Amino acid sequence: MRKYSVFAVAREAMRSHKGWEQQWTSPEPRSSYDVIIIGGGGHGLGAAYYLAKEHGITNVAVIEKGWLGGGNTGRNTTIIRSNYLYEESMDIYEHSLKLWEGLSQDLNYNVMYSPRGVMMLSHNTHDMQSFKRHINANRLYGIDNEWLTPEEAKKFCPPLDISKTARYPINGAALQKRGGTARHDAVAWGYARAASDRGVHIIQNTEVTGIRRGPNGEVTGIETNRGFIGAKKIGVSAAGHSSVVMQMADVRVPLTSNPLQALVSEPLKPIFPCVVMSNTVHAYISQSDKGELVIGAGTDQYHSYSQTGGLQIITHTLDAICELFPIFRRVKMMRQWGGITDNTPDRSAIQSVTPVPNLFVNCGWGTGGFKATPGSANLFAWLIAKGEPHRLAQGLTLDRFRTGRLIDEAAAAAVAH
Amino acid sequence: MLLIHCPYCRDDRSELEFRWAGEAHIARPEQISEISDEAFSEYFFMRDNTKGIAWERWRHIHGCGRFFNAIRDTVSDKFLLTYKAGLPRQPVPGTETAGVETVEGGAA
Amino acid sequence: MTSYRIKGAGRLTPARTARFTFDGKIYTALEGDTVASALLANGVHLMGRSFKYHRPRGILSAGAEEPNALLDVARDAARRQPNVRASVQEVFDGAIIQSQNRWPTLGFDISSINNLLSPFFAAGFYYKTFMWPREAWAKLYEPIIRRAAGLGVAPKEEDPDHYANRFAHCDVLVAGAGAAGLTAALSAAETGASVILVDERAEVGGALLFDTSVTINGQSGYDWAQGVLVKLAAMPNVRVLTRTTVFGYYNHNFIGLVERVTDHMPRPDKLLPRERLWQVRAKKVVLATGAIERHMVFANNDRPGILLASAARMYLNHYGVAVGSRIGVYTAHDSAYEAAIDLKKAGVEIAAIVDCRAKPGDAVVSAARNLGIEVLTGYSVIDTAGRLRISSMTVARNSSTNHRKIAVDALLMSGGWTPSVHLFSQSRGKLKFDAENQRFLPNIYAENSISVGACNGTDDLNALLTEASAAGGGSVSVSGDSAFTWTGGMIGAAEGAGKDTTVKAFVDFQHDVTAKDIRLAVREGMHSIEHIKRFTTNGMASDQGKLSNMHGLAIAAEVLGKEIPQVGLTTFRAPYTPVTYGTLIAHSRGDLFDPARKTPLHAELTKAGAEFEDVGNWKRAWYFPRRGEDMHAAVNRECRTAREVAGIFDASTLGKIEVVGPDAAKFLNLMYTNAWDNLKPGKCRYGIMTREDGFVYDDGVVGRLAEDRFHVTTTTGGAPRVLHHMEDYLHTEFPDLKVWLTSTTEQWAVIAVQGPKAREIIEPLVEGLDLSSEAFPHMSVAECTVMGVPARLFRVSFTGEVGYEVNVPADYGASVWKAIWERGEALGACLYGTETMHVLRAEKGYIIVGQDTDGTVTPDDAGYGWAVSKKKTDFVGIRGLKRPDLMRSGRKQLVGLLTADPLEVLEEGGQIVADPNEPKPMTMLGHVTSAYWSENLGRSIAIALVADGRARMGQTVYIPMKDKTIAATVSDMVFFDKEGGRIHG
């Protein structure tokens, strides 16, 4: 792999960029692999990368139905944070955040991780109690998260309206300074390039139509629109389509797929320095490097695979944004889109062995999957390689739905991003 | 925004009047206290989450207040049928996928 | 300054002028001008700078597709709008217009250095560098990139304008009022159907506004269009909305429109909204959205003065403006000839028509040549010159190296026409590729809609009119004629784009994406059109690829050696053109953003000086400060007074559900963990509700009024979901039960009177009831009258004192409140709010669901195991409670905490550990759920969820804070009146 650097860019600039090679190759599939990952998003590509890098398993294929990074990886609002409440959540999101901090260097691909701070607004006593519970838990766990007064919040994010006369006045905020954003496409491409370099096959435009099982019920490979491909192990990392893929192995999972919408404004000169979220009024917003205000809207209420949703979801979100930031009322929405989130009953992810031998699943990241990408990929690779969960992901198994040991992040936050 | 036919009001109304209420025809086990942990997990948590034709429940919460069932294509979001609660799982209406019909039946 | 206004051309009235400033300079326009036509009339082409290289840019189009001329248009300081298309915004008198993305001036922009550095800034270069040192991306590189990027400057002040919202239904919605849309609308309207006809421009006519060679029904196309408009406007079943954009096509024919109401007016009536959102549910949608002309992709095709041929025609034929004085044309399509012909006839010099095709349409060529225009077929423009305005074009015969420089001050381009399938595609219709004409056309419809005219690929005028008439559902007699039949068109890089990788041949103007960028993306392995788009940002600018998408696709396909449909097409997303947030939110702001719920006593509470807090949607009285009191002092006084005398509290927000019917008790048995059969009429019981999972969902006191009637109370926030939950079970699981549920939350005003003198306060006001503890003990309920008002009186307590909750119909609430307060005040009682309520209940260890519990707490965890019936064979939650994790030992349980320092009040949300010296990550036992200063006890108290808490009684635990560690002893949850005698007093 040709190393990326400022020198390489300069050299190529002198010769019209004719020397760049393909970032990843698109080989013909082999007849079988040690591991097949179904789903070429950030989680799947990352898992393949870490299988190769950390576990020495390089006979790996990532099978993607469409174009890699085309699912939720390329559709989210790129927020990164780790200030979750429960230990199980803190474990995995903090693991992820630490990987984010060095990801560009590890992959030799600028994923533009930008710790510009994620600020969550508190509007009432209940919010305050909940945020302080988070802040204290995070601090004792070694995760940064601090309480700001309304004035401090305004200083951190000048467009914020902190007047007492607002419909939902702000009584403080929780700030994770290490939280921020990253460039979503770069994550998929960076992992793809690094995985491809280590021998992983990235196979796009290939739809899995079945999972073949052996005499003992174990997986033996996948049926695709390009024929059968054998596999000793299969990892499913198909986000919104997890239920569909798992059904091919007769495994039911506790998921509901919902459309989640987002929108961006026309590009503006820098006006918004951080990420702001409000659970009470249901809004979150940041500004991209291109200058667009990136706004996450809510999920549509019904289960759907349509990647579209209702206008009322968008308008409701903008109601909230303009309530928090009245100066944005003349700003214009440039593009809206939708993704399909896979939501669990406790709004925490699933990373687990399954009743089917050698079939592993990574799903249920709901609206929080992007920030988890490196951590989830890293621990999913461990799970596939070792056949049992890593210490940091032990709470995420499917068994919790039998025992009742849920990780109820839903109870703690209405909008879990 | 969806347009939903309430089988009780017999009218097409905007989605704003309705609340989605999960997959349909998941009956609460009769002797629920006797079932296994696995069976409880299956009943309470596991879902088909079908891509394609799905049976689901809605409530006309800002209307007549009734729960009812629907058959909807979760890829196109088109409703194929809505019918009253208490009726058994209805078959997918023929090949006509655009129109919305109503099955009358005993209210629950 | 030379005026480029052509006498006798165009349709504007010369007498009606407007003045505006552009970058501080005053210009005169005619009423009806767009900013673009007005500036062009003054010879100004330079209107903006590109996003990345800051190249000088001029107006490119005459419509919504404009990528270059984005301006900042202001009425005053607060009414300033960035990123306005000069080709769309109508001039109004007094407009203050400025260029964007340049410093210090539009003519001299420092950042244009980027253009020189552009070899470094190839597509996706930022993914390959700026990685060292690690912190430098966010601290150094990113801020520089952010400052350079962006376009307009966001408003700094709150928008003083207001916006409106309307919902509408119609039989037929027609998008676009060109020849096809007008015909379809008329056809539909004549059948009696209700019709909404929408067009984004100020005037109807669409392409007829510039295409003066068309006649319909014997009239000029423009006159015919205005005639149809008059006819439609007179029909009661038709609504015509001009200056209105169909921006979004949503599920089930739900259509979003934005109507620009005042932005063209010099002094709009303050009562008018600036813009109006229309949300239309249409039975049928006719898409008559036309087509957009494409530019040609060749070297330096972006200089000011280079624009679309149809735009030049629009500026001439509608606005009466010539876009130059010596104009060249570079085309691959016949339509550009008509622009040259019209300009020539208007007296403008045409330097040459350069047609990259060997065989253009004979008719247009001979017509041009007959006017003396030089036509070069099989030639291409391979370069242009000119810094802030094009000065020449370099022309060469295809595949030849000989070239010739021709001086021009404007260059018109046409690569042919792209059908506007945006809305069709938004509706999730499936497109097909028309290989012959190199375009995507509607194929399979997902909604009840139909495309007609140019957006459907119907080029022939009479075919278009027939198709449109049929689509309307009726039949209009209409036929037309046009001077020329157009042929030709190309997509992808033209001859002059060069095969090499140094030429800047722009595909996406705003984002500075060139043909070589697309090729680079493919070379780097971006083989899906979505990857190419994202890697190069082609089509992601504010015009959303209206001009660039097809070119980008064709170039990619060529490099990949694939057919265009194999490479794919990016998805079209709403909105068609950007929509103001203010319009989308319309009335939902301030108080209407989320209307506050106020109790029937709100006015009384306000008069009494209450401070309020938000609890869900409710405004609740928080505390009642007296002169000089802060919150702490007020709450201390209220707490003391309530226990010493009495306190009066507005409890109206409590959720209330009337459960009625012969099976009411049976139903409650299923819905609550407690048993209800044995509750006698006239008695109350505290109930706990779980869902099937066994976790506490809600709680409240339930009073039985009769065998078949219960008055159920819920938490303030829980009322709607508890009712929904109950209805769900009643409709679907227990439909045979004869029970009816009614929400009565807002039916009753609830006045809680608590304290030793509670009875004395209300006794004289209550009629028909013996209030003595013997006759009406704690946990009783009765119907009676209070001051003659029918009432439900509860003897319940959330304070541990003697307590009554007086329920009267909401309309009587205020007068009963006043009467009770009059007596209470005389006896030395106080009013208290939610804060005192919280303290008093915590002193007694009463929990608040949602504060002391979250979604992981069982009744037993909360210390309410006794409320779970052991006898019932079924209730919702019975099985969930028996799951392994809910039965295990060591679960977190609610207990009391007493700090070692009695003056120390713990922080709610503080985390509890056993070993304060454990290194991070520490093992957390639980957290503080409630913590208060108790004035009555003279010390702090707290409630906490602690692992194995009840087994830790008397043990010391620690709450490490940021700056100190607080020690506390685990205790019983009842801190005050442990024997509980006061409640019965």
UniProtKB/TrEMBL annotation, chain A:
Cytoplasm is among the record's keywords: yes
Cross-referenced InterPro entries: FAD-dep_OxRdtase, FAD/NAD-bd_sf, Rhodanese-like_dom, SoxB
Subcellular location: Cytoplasm
Enzyme Commission identifier(s): 1.5.3.24
Main localization (coarse): cytoplasm
Entry superkingdom: Bacteria
Obligatory cofactor(s): FMN; FAD
PROSITE patterns named in the record: RHODANESE_3 (PS50206)
Enzyme class: oxidoreductase
Domain Rhodanese span(s) in chain numbering: 35-79
Any single Pfam family the record assigns to this protein: DAO
Family matches, as PANTHER family: FAD-DEPENDENT OXIDOREDUCTASE DOMAIN-CONTAINING PROTEIN 1, SARCOSINE DEHYDROGENASE-RELATED
Protein family (similarity comment): Belongs to the SoxB family.
Protein name: Sarcosine oxidase subunit beta
TrEMBL record, chain B:
Database matches in Gene3D superfamilies: Folate-binding superfamily
Pfam families: SoxD (PF04267)
Name used for this protein in its record: Sarcosine oxidase subunit delta
Taxonomic lineage: Bacteria, Pseudomonadati, Pseudomonadota, Alphaproteobacteria, Hyphomicrobiales
UniProtKB/TrEMBL annotation, chain C:
Domain Aminomethyltransferase C-terminal: 892-977
All copies of domain SoxA A3, residue ranges: 504-586
A Pfam short name: GCV_T
Protein name, UniProt field: Sarcosine oxidase subunit alpha
Protein family membership: Belongs to the GcvT family.
Entry keywords, A to Z: Oxidoreductase
Domain GCVT N-terminal: residue ranges: 601-872
SUPFAM superfamilies: Aminomethyltransferase beta-barrel domain, FAD/NAD(P)-binding domain, Folate-binding domain
Domain FAD/NAD(P)-binding positions: 171-446
Domain of life: Bacteria
